[in-house]
Specification:
The complex is a heterodimer of chains A (about 450) and B (about 170). Chain A is of the alpha/beta class and about 450 residues long. Chain A folds into three domains: about 210 residues, NADH-ubiquinone oxidoreductase 51kDa subunit (Rossmann fold, 3-Layer(aba) Sandwich), CATH 3.40.50; about 100 residues, Ubiquitin-like (UB roll) (Roll), CATH 3.10.20; about 90 residues, NADH-ubiquinone oxidoreductase 51kDa subunit, iron-sulphur binding domain (de novo design (two linked rop proteins)), CATH 1.20.1440.230. Helix content of chain A is about 40%, strand content about 10%. Chain A is built from 19 helices and eleven strands. A five-stranded mixed β-sheet of chain A has the order 8-7-11-9-10. In chain A, strands 3-2-1-4 form a four-stranded parallel β-sheet, sandwiched between helices. In chain A, helix 7 links the parallel strand 2 and strand 3. The longest helix of chain A has 25 residues. The relative contact order of chain A is 0.12. Chain B contains seven helices and four strands, in the order ααααβααβββα. Helix content of chain B is about 45%, strand content about 10%. Chain B has two domains: about 60 residues, Arc Repressor Mutant, subunit A; about 90 residues, Glutaredoxin (3-Layer(aba) Sandwich). The chains are: A alpha/beta (about 450), B alpha+beta (about 170). Chain A: Its cofactor is FMN; [4Fe-4S] cluster. Chain A: It holds the Pfam family Complex1_51K. Chain A: InterPro entries: ComplexI_51kDa_subunit, NADH-UbQ_OxRdtase_51kDa_CS, NADH-UbQ_OxRdtase_suF, Nuo51_FMN-bd, Nuo51_FMN-bd_sf, Nuop51_4Fe4S-bd, Nuop51_4Fe4S-bd_sf.
Chain lengths: ~450, ~170
Amino acid sequence: MSSQKLLLENAHIEGIRYYDVYRKNGGYRSVEKALKMAPDEVVEEVKKSGLRGRGGAGFPTGMKWSFIAKPEGVPRHLVCNADESEPGTFKDRYLMEFLPHLLIEGLIVSSYALGSNVTYIYIRGEYAWIPDILEQAIAEAKANGFLGKNILNSGFDCEIYVQRGAGAYICGEETALIESLEGKRGNPRIKPPFPAVKGAWDRPTVVNNVETLAAVVPIINIGGEEYAKIGVGRSTGTKLISACGNINKPGVYEIDMTISVEEFIYSDEWCGGIKSGKRLKACIPGGSSVPILPANLLLKTAKGESRIMNYESLSDGGFATGTMMGSGGFIVLDEDQCVVKHTYTLARFYRHESCGQCSPCREGTGWMEKLLLRLDQGQGKLSDIDLLWDIQSKIEGNTICPLGDAAAWPVAAAIRHFRDEFEWHITNAAEAQTRNYGLAHYADPLPVSEPVAV
Amino acid sequence: MEQKIMIQFSQEQLEKVNQIIARYPEGKQKSALLPVLHLAQEVFGWLSTETMDYVAALLQIEPIEVYEVATFYTMYNLKPVGKYVFEVCQTGPCMIQGSDDIIAYIGERLNIKPGETTEDGLFTLKVAECLGACGYAPMMQVGKFYKEHLTKEKVDAIIAECRNNVSVNN
């Protein structure tokens, strides 16, 4: 089954990175259309589309836009979050590298809807070659009258600037991003006030992910109602999935959120199956912070239904037996992978990226990393597993920003579903240094009536 | 050993700084700090206290405001680094594709550990956390660009290419 493409349809056209080719293929029509509408009508279309934030949180974009405060005489800003740093996620990079004009087009329409005359793209510093691509696209759009003063004689002025970060995962959190944009450390702010009221330089600000803003283009082109017909339930439109790990065809795919996880992993159109004919052990389907699931719970929900690649189905069963769509960073582990070691690398990542502002996160991530390293090296104790559980539960919900939760969830889920593998690293410490635990029962069919341990 | 460099942007670089400042609201020139630190690092190689103080003066902010930012973000070098910095990603998706072996191999080839610089000042090896190239693992960043799908052979070729560049430019 082929999925409808709204974002990447033209990604493989030669020269699509440049204005002339992009324009010839229908580019910038949404700007022409939107600038003839009232800004609120554009917001209304986005609301009707059901578009949900593609950065990970899945918050309805139209609703977020409608929260922006409009005090008299105070400039408002749109900021594009291109700080993509969640392990497993590399979709925004693909969009910006291959279709920079799609993002710029989406930014112009969205800036118009929100009344942002100066819009920023905050891009992670390591993507050091991409600002050149974006700045060229901006210059081309400007030379052709789609940016600058009085765009298409609408009276609307807009400039877009690119700012590079400098290496900090936390700056993907919107208030940390704003702090960073202001030239400060990326310490998240306490909300409220929300950025929509007091954001960059205390001005009303909306921060949206790259993919979210690119999706505004097809929404305006085909209309919000048509867009909402694609997909299923509250998972409307298409979603970019960056697939990696032990699969035959890693890469960025656009799906319409109706295909099953099984089809996505095994079909030649998508991941092409597990590499080297190995068996699937586990998967983190939405970026490193969402719960890892063993193969059986990934492919079928606890109710025995086929799991679908959308917001609702991936979270079916809550954290006990489900996971999350997150950012769409799809990490696949085969039977040879060690869940303890993998979880250790994620714990190390979150310790490294904690801004240090809140004690539960600053101290807790360090403890989790040390305990997991000890377990991985065969020097753990059984009580370490309980201690890990205790620490993660004390981080979750006790921090200013969601990084605390993001650090806690992978550890909690790994223990929840792979506890026997953790125990084996302790009871069979020497053996665990020479081989991996393997597939065990993780791919067994799950009986429908089996009670689920939390 | 350490050559004393005059910490002073050229006229052209100063113009660039002013262009960056102009992107932000008036009086909010501190917002230009991250981009200006990137520029300073590009020009002076790393961020010495002297460099940070210079940037503070340029942006009319306190030196401490620069230090606290420079120490927060991983991309700013607070000590001198080699001409080529290999930053190898070691997070989950790269780990399962063999990043540990790549880190060990580079260390062996250059006879340095992560965080160290070769005696000739050519190479620095660093480990990095997720660089957003998970589908093309294992990988590393070298300067502005990513080197992906790394193998030992590819690492050898990259090292040779760097050495070659240096001898050509000298």
